[in-house]
Amino acid sequence: MTLRLPKAELPAELKENMIKQLGVVPENVEVLWHSPRVTQDNLEFGSKVGAWKAVDPGLKSFAHMAVAAQVGCSWCLDVGYFQAQNENLDLARASQVPRWREADVFTALDRDVMGYAEAVTNTPPTVTDEQYASLLERLGTEAMVELTAFIAYVNLATRANVANGVTSQGFSDACEIPLAKRPATSHAGSAA
């Protein structure tokens, strides 16, 4: 897939900041910059979402990567795994998110969060009362609200990237453990 919009030239300060954070300028930011207001609002909201603390960072990372794998956003999967490394999360587990159903490295809670992330992502969503109640009991109300809003935000980002033709930039190449590939077969109820 190729970019569906050409990259826009970013202001020098924003470009420098992006390079400081990630080592390169993210292509999704360059594409979105055709509307500076949309880009700035998206970056600001993304920063606020990143500051939420009611949910364990590992669970949020797994949810993010599960959505990215399901939607097919190689950019989000790539950068999500890179960020997991930078946040000192368990890379042996994070590397297996694209194949979480087959991998034996996840706890029951990890699996339930990734299943919930996929259920929220399905079109239409397939969240069940039992699924929600089970997570609510283990996470609590504040964390459940945060997790749900986080997954919704990740859906916005992943779907925008895929629609704009943004693909992996190789962020995860810096990780010691290679990122697993998603199995070729789809799972029932995981249509995006």
Describe this structure in words.
By secondary structure, the chain is an all-alpha fold. It folds into 2 domains: 45 residues, no CATH class; 122 residues, Up-down Bundle (AhpD-like). It contains 9 helices and no strands. Helix 4 runs parallel beside helix 9, helix 7 crosses helix 8 and helix 8 packs across helix 9. It is globular, with a radius of gyration of 16 Å. The two termini are 18 Å apart. The C terminus is likely disordered.
CATH class of the largest domain: Mainly Alpha
The number of distinct helices, counting runs of at least 4 residues, comes to: 9
CATH superfamily of the largest domain: AhpD-like
Number of domains: 2
Query: Into which percentage range does the β-strand content fall?
Result: under 5%
Secondary-structure element pattern, one letter each: HHHHHHHHH
Distance between the termini: 18 Å
Proportion of residues in helical segments: 55-70%
Radius of gyration from the CA trace? 16 Å
Ranges where pLDDT stays below 50 over 5 or more residues in a row are 188-192
Overall pLDDT level: 93
Protein name: Carboxymuconolactone decarboxylase family protein
Organism: Actinacidiphila cocklensis
Strand-helix topology:
Elements lengths: L11 H11 L4 H6 L3 H16 L5 H15 L2 H13 L4 H4 L13 H14 L7 H11 L1 H24 L28
Features:
single chain, 192 residues, mainly alpha, AhpD-like, 9 helices, 0% strand, disordered C terminus
Question: How would you sum up this structure in a few lines?
Answer:
With 192 residues, the chain is mainly α. It contains nine helices and no strands.
